[in-house]
């Protein structure tokens, strides 16, 4: 029997068991990671909904799943902190089920610690066997007092066509590849997500067509390094080729992708973007450092000069594009001189926004063995200077659009003010403006009346397009 069919059978079995209980069970999936994890959570929610669970945002639920991240140490600490809260809830409600999954579970020392100190957990599984979730849930329902663990080191197989339930009706992420083979020396992702494997283009296109037919107008193509998409596939295709095919899908209005690695970024990709009306004017291009020496130590395979060239090439072909980045401060051995090279790239690139991180030592990565020469104070000081520079360039580039009328895809009600809705421009900037729920999922023209640094306040100018 094929794997997909097996899992559907387990969904049915769980559904059957749950329907015999005299209570509607609820489930809550909390996501701690990146867009990949968010997409995995949609798959978990899809399976749980099929089983008959009622989904909720409250951790008071009968089943709580933490989908974890381990890219930096503080991501792990957050989980241990929150587990304490779940334990207190379970003491009051012993039938409460608690499951943990995601990248952090792929680390042996984490699972050991959970087994010994957090034995109230019902289920722990990893990133490689997420497609077996229905089967694992069946075990939990049958043996609710056991600590079930199943972690696999890696897998090749990609199981297609399992249920998933989108968080938003009008947009979703689409995995185009899994894993990462780049082994940047600071990064744990290749160890917890396994080897890079691309999905067949025909499977991706079929999935997006089905989503578009079901009302999705924005897709985000997901991979740790989308620019190397296509390796090892039966049918030869690269990322630019895939994008061009996605661009032709009827019904889609916006196409995004994440993450691009500068070492594999091609002119062909820039051309496909420039020609398209649907591919958003946004490029997230993590630079990590501006120092050639540090880039080499990080195993990034590009130079400061190449990075600046790519920024120029993007802006030349698409003057309205927003370029955003990730930067790490305090990589082992980083000197003030190295740091100033990073500041120089920030100065020259005029990023529209940047995620800045203090280097976090991850056990098992090559950089974890390198000595750290800078003090915590020095690193903090560099971080503060970098943040100020990044905020300055972000505010400056945002200011350029003030007063203009732009298309906004409305995503949700404003979290703080019920009279406002919140949406995004093609370049990914956030806009708040007066409106109601009926606008959610629509693209409307909005005048960007006021720039607040990293978001806009606006007003709708006429009915949706
Ligand atoms: N695949 C993406 C990034 C995934 S992780 C890429 O290559 O760009 C997201 C970001 O977390 C990275 O871009 C990096 O800036 C940051 N990061 C990864 N490992 C880190 C570490 N050990 N310490 C601090 N930041 C880290
Ligand atoms: Fe990590 Fe580098 Fe892979 Fe990105 S490309 S996930 S930073 S190893
Ligand atoms: Fe975190 Fe895993 Fe994403 S470690 S950043 S959730 S791939």
Would you write up a description of this structure?
With 465 residues, this protein is α/β, with parallel strands linked by helices. Helices cover 36% and strands 21% of the residues. Strand 18 and strand 19 (455-460) form a beta hairpin. Helix 1 (3-19) packs across helix 2 (35-51) and helix 11 (304-317) runs parallel beside helix 12 (336-349). It starts with a helix and ends in a 5-residue tail after the last strand. Bound molecules: S-adenosyl-L-homocysteine, iron/sulfur cluster and FE3-S4 cluster. S-adenosyl-L-homocysteine binds next to strand 13.
Supply database-style keywords.
465 residues; alpha/beta; binds iron/sulfur cluster; binds FE3-S4 cluster
Question: Helix segment count?
Answer: 13
Q: Compute the gyration radius: what is it?
A: 23 Å
Provide the helix percentage. Answer: 25-40%
Low-confidence stretches: none
Query: What average pLDDT do the residues reach?
Result: 95
Beta content: 15-25%
